[in-house]
Amino acid sequence: MSDQIKIDTGISIALTGSGGAGVMTAGGMLLEAAAKSGFYGLQTRSVGPQIRGGEAAALLRLSNHAVEIHRGGFDILFALDWSNFSRFAAEITLDENSVVIFDPEGGEVPEIVSAATKNIIELPIKKFASEIPGGRMNMIALGIVAGAIDLPKETVLGLIVRKFASKGEAVLEASRACLEAGYKHAGSVANAPKLVSDAENADVPRWLITGNEAAALGAVRGGIKFAAAYPITPATEILEWLAPSLTAIGGNLVQAEDELSSINMIIGASYGGIPSITATSGPGLALMTESIGLATAAEVPVVIVDVMRGGPSTGIPTKSEQSDLNIAIYGLHGDAPHLVTAPLSVADCLFTTQWSVHLAEAMQVPAIILSDQYLGQAKMIIDKPADVAFFADRSKVEKIDTAYTRYALTADGVSPMAIPGTAGGQYTADGLEHSVTGTPSSAAEDHHDQLAKRRRKIEGFNYGTHWAEIEGEGDLVIVTWGSTAAPVREAAELARAEGISVKTIAVRLLAPLRVEALEAELAGARRVLVIEQNDLAQFYRYLRGHVDLPADTRAYHHPGPMMLSTTEILSEIMKEHRL
Q: Are residues 419 and 533 in the same domain?
C-alpha cells in the first residue's frame, strides 16, 4: 500500500492576469467548450476585494468524470502578465511536470514559478493580438490552451459566435481571428496533457451551473414567490437569477435598502401567505438575527441563504470559509428553535434549498441555509439533477367557525395559519410571548407551553434520510459538512481504491442535529475524524456538545481563504489508518 496515492483525474488549468484582462471570460469559454465536448469540469475564480482592477485567476479542472474540487496541482499555468501574481500564488501549486506559458512583455517569471518547473514557454501573446485589428490577448490564450489540450476548434468557434455576435461584426471577426491564431500556435505547447474522452459518458445530459444559480432554482422549484435582499458578495448572483425568474412566474423581488429591511420584508410577505426568501453573507446574517427571532416566535416561515465568506467583520468577501456555523445555530437570543441546513455540492445547492423551503413552510419556522463562496460561485458541469417533490405546503385554515387559536398546542407543534383576510382569523403576531390565541402573555404556563410547542415541531419532524449523505463502510469514519464534503468524498474514494475502508458522513441538516441517527452511524467506529474549514473547529465542538463521540475522535480544520484539498485530507486519512 503506497503512502503517496496518485491523483490523476483530468487536466487542471490556471489562467492569470490583471483585472480586466479577460481571464475569467476565457476560462468560462474553456469550461463551456469542454461541456459541449462531453466532459465534466469546474471553474472557480480567485480575485481580490477590489471593485475593479487588481489580480484575477480563472482556475479550471476538466475531466471525463464528475469533479467537484480542485485536485491540488495545476498542469497548465497561462499568465497574461505577472501583475500581483504573488497574491494567489499559494492557490496555484506547480510541479516539475507543469507547463507555464507567458508573455515576456508581462514581466519576469516569479521565482516561485521558475523554481517549481522548467517547462516554461515564452509566447508573444500581446504581439499576436496587436497584429489583429481589435485583437485581445485573452482570446489568443483561449485558442492556445484549447488547441493544446485538444478541444475541437469548431466547438470553441461556435461559442465565439454565440457570445460576440451581438457586439457587432468587427468584434466577432477579431475574436474569431484571435482564436484561429491561438490554435495555430498551440503546437508550441508540446508537453501539455490532452483531454481524453469517455465515449460512454459523452451523451449524458449535463448542466453548466453555479451553486448560487442552483440555489435560486431550488428556491423557485420549492415554491418561493417573493424575495427581498440587499446585494452582498458572494450572494448577489442568487438575486440576479431570481429577479427575472420570479417575475416570469408571477412573483417579485425587491432590492431593499439594507439587510434589516430585507428580513422584515420577507417576514411580512410570508405572514401574508407568500413563501419568501432572502440571500446574504455573514455580515448580513448578523444584522438579521433579531428579526429571525421574531419569525421564530410568531411562527412565520422564512428562508435565509447565507453564502459564507471569510470573517469576521468585512473579512475576505471574495474567499470561502465555513465560519458562520456558530451564529447560524446559536445566534438567536432566547430558546429559539429553527432550522440550519448546508448544501454538500454545487448540484446539492438545488436540492438543499428546495428541501429547506419545504421544511420551513411545513413547520412554519425560519430556515438558514449555509452555502459558501466556493459553492456559490464555482461553475460546474454536472449531471442533470433529479426532480424532487419537495415544495411549499403550509398548513392553513380556510374556514373558522369558532374562536381562532393560532398557536394551538397540537401534537406535532404545527398550528394551521390564518392568512390575513380569512374571516374570523384575526390574531396578534409579534415577538411577545403569547397564549394559544396570540394574546401577549407573561404567564409561566403560556411561556412553557409555547417553548415546548416550538421545540416539538422541529424535533419530531420526519426528515427521512436527507439529514446526511453517507458513503462507504469501515471503522475509520470522517464526519463533515457543507463544501468540505467534496474533497472528503474524493479523498475517501482514492483511499478505498488503495484498500483502506473509510466511511464518510456529510451532514446536511445541522440543526436540529439528528443525534440518534448520527450515533447509530458512528456505532463501531474505531477512529473519527471531523473535518471543516474554520479556525475554531466549530462543527467539532458542536458535535462534542450533543453527540456521544468515540474516544478517538480528532478535529482536522483550518480557516480560509485556502480551500481544504483532496491531497491534505488524503494525508490525514493515511495517518488515521496507520494508528
A: no
